Amino acid sequence: MFIEVNKLTKTYYVGNVKVTALKDVSFTLEKGGFYVVLGPSGSGKTTLMNILGGIDSADSGKVIIDGEDITSLDAKLLTNYRREKLGFVFQFYNLINSLTVYENVLSTKYLSKNGLDPKEVLETVGMWEHRDKFPFELSGGEQQRVAIARAVVKNPSLILCDEPTGALDFENAKRVLELLEDINRRYGTTIILSTHNTAISRMSNKIIRLRSGELIEFKDNPSPIPAKEVSW
Ligand code: ADP
Ligand code: MG
After folding, report:
1. Over the stretch 91-110, which tens digit does the pLDDT of each residue have?
2. What's the CA gap between 112 and 110, in Å, rounded?
3. Which atom of ligand 1 is nearest to the CA of 14?
4. Quick one: fold of 32-58+74-229?
5. Residues within 6 Å of ligand 1 by CB
6. Angle, helix 140-152 to helix 170-187, in steps of 10 degrees
7. What is d(CA 64, CA 40) in angstroms, rounded to the nearest whole number?
């Protein structure tokens, strides 16, 4: 099993108010799949993604990724895990505004030992001809494609995409989904994508459905549809 999430619980306290962001969440995922975390706003998607990505910690429970218990790693080993194994794509792109497209992609390539050729990756996402532009010169959809290139160039075994289409119009959202599908197939990268959009879950191998921090459904999708057929 590539990913094992076992009884993951996370509570936030805001003043005296207790918010249970994740409660006893357990599931397992195989390597190379395309998986969707589905749930409305506030259901715990970002909390789950951040814990899987080692940028937030759980109160209890375990996350084992590729044989490594990331919930028990010290800061240094956790940094290594994020560098070597992981790519992250966020809703609002999070590009470095003072760097060009090419430099943004180059900035993560050397974090891992087996990084890919930035030119090849920028061509894959259709942004090679825009390589000398700065983020402010790009549309949201283009920025997200650069953000995907930046995640892919490290050649990670897992890419976490937290609402990657949440700020995009339909056409650009579709393009991003087709691209993630292509990367999943071409590089065999396991992809976990979070969304509130049920239509997107139809392209997933498994659906991880959250409500108020609880896993309310975990099911196989025996016949995932191609990204280009996803519609809403
Ligand atoms: P989603 O991504 O599905 O919208 P989140 O994981 O962001 O859900 O949030 C789950 C719950 O935890 C929400 O009720 C949210 O308000 C709360 N929450 C998330 N992060 C924090 C935080 N840093 N401090 C306090 N509450 C938080
Ligand atoms: Mg969120």
Report:
1. 999 999 999 999 999 999 88
2. 5
3. 25
4. Rossmann fold (3.40.50)
5. 12, 14, 19, 21, 39, 41-47
6. 10
7. 26
